[in-house]
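Example S7 (structure tokens).
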């Protein structure tokens, strides 16, 4: 009989306090507005098969870590797309194309965003071009093709795929639907973030009777994390402590917080958490995150397969949970923080805490998921 992994031995890699923390609801909702957020919910909640994804209690893990409650938002169930990204790209496609049929949409992606854009385009009968780097699995490429997208593989990393997407889109007059912002390209990334904020609307109702004290948010370019911060400003009465978690090999938010400005990092080795292996925080998220988050933490890839297996084997909760690689860092970092008594004290993690973490994706890459389960 298995008693689960020895989470009491797990460690985080780096921890940093944000000295500039000064959560200001009005400032945050000036960037992603109440109107943006409400429009997204009003639209997405009318889509076929929309329902609240489960908020699962990780009661067994909470007991091991001596935390009151741990809530796990299970995005493996999001519209059969198996990740929260379903809410962003598809919503942006719908908003920017405004019912026109002759538009071709394009994007560059690590996988899940592209799947959302392809799905959104197919729903509206639009053509779609998706650019992927050599690191994106063929399984993920095939999923995007299954939604009718043309998938174009580009040599090199994500940045190369984005450059090629921008170049070909300009030449062919395709409409780029990117989740990353740059100077003069902020509207679409904002729309994707507004789409993601639907998660916090659901959570605010699912936790009506429990005040959330801490929230741990995964970051790649920071879009999801910043959208959740805006959702907290919009929907929650209390402000939890906000902790950003990143792969130790791709800590672009942590390094930017340390520097007090956006820092591009150099990724020596791509993390297995592919969606989070990003070298630069995006502009719009940075404006929200820089003063609203309390702490940053990083984790190693070594705990990914252990966490995937424990979720699947009901070792953290009564329910079997299908959590892919990007669903693991919330759990890993929480265990690591709880195992450091000084930090645990400092950030007020204790038997009265209600911690919210995100299971951002399920087995979106089924082959990798099986490999992690069998490791
Ligand atoms: C699958 C996946 N992609 C991407 C991200 C990161 O999102 P963003 O790039 O908006 O920070 C996450 C966050 O955990 C994720 O789970």
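Recovered sequence:
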């Amino acid at each position: 009989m298995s008693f689960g992994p020895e989470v009491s031995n797990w460690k985080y890699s780096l921890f940093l306090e944000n000295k500039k923390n000064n959560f200001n609801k009005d400032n945050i909702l000036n960037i992603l507005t109440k109107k943006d957020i409400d429009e997204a919910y009003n639209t997405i909640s009318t889509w076929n098969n929309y329902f609240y994804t489960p908020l699962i209690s990780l009661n067994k893990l909470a007991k091991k870590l001596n935390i009151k409650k741990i809530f796990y938002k299970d995005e493996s169930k999001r519209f059969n797309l198996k990740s929260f990204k379903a809410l962003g790209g598809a919503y942006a496609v719908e908003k920017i194309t405004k019912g026109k049929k002759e538009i071709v949409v394009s994007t560059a992606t690590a996988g899940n965003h592209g799947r959302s854009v392809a799905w959104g385009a197919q729903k509206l009968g639009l053509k779609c071009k998706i650019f992927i780097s050599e690191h994106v699995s063929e399984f993920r490429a095939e999923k995007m093709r299954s939604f009718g997208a043309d998938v174009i593989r580009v040599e090199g990393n994500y940045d190369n795929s984005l450059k090629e997407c921008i170049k070909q889109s300009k030449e062919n007059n395709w409409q780029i639907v990117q989740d990353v912002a740059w100077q003069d390209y902020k509207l679409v990334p904002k729309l994707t973030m507004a789409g993601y904020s639907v998660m916090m609307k659901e959570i605010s109702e699912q936790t009506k009777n429990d005040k959330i004290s801490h929230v741990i948010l995964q970051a790649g370019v920071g879009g999801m994390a910043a959208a959740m911060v805006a959702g907290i400003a919009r929907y929650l009465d209390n402000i939890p402590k906000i902790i950003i978690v990143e792969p130790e090999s791709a800590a672009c938010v942590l390094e930017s917080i340390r520097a007090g400005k956006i820092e591009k990092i150099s990724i020596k080795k791509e993390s297995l958490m592919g969606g989070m292996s990003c070298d630069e925080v995006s502009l719009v998220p940075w404006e929200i995150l820089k003063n609203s988050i309390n702490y940053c933490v990083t984790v190693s890839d070594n705990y990914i397969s252990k966490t995937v297996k424990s979720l699947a084997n009901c070792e953290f909760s009564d329910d079997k949970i299908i959590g892919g690689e990007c669903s693991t860092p919330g759990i890993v970092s929480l265990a690591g923080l709880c195992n450091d008594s000084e930090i645990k004290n400092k950030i007020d993690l204790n038997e009265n805490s209600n911690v919210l973490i995100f299971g951002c994706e399920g087995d979106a890459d089924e082959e990798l998921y099986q490999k992690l389960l069998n490791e």
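Notes on this example. Residues 83, 112, 218-225, 275-276, 278, 326, 360-361 surround pyridoxal-5'-phosphate (CB under 6 Å).
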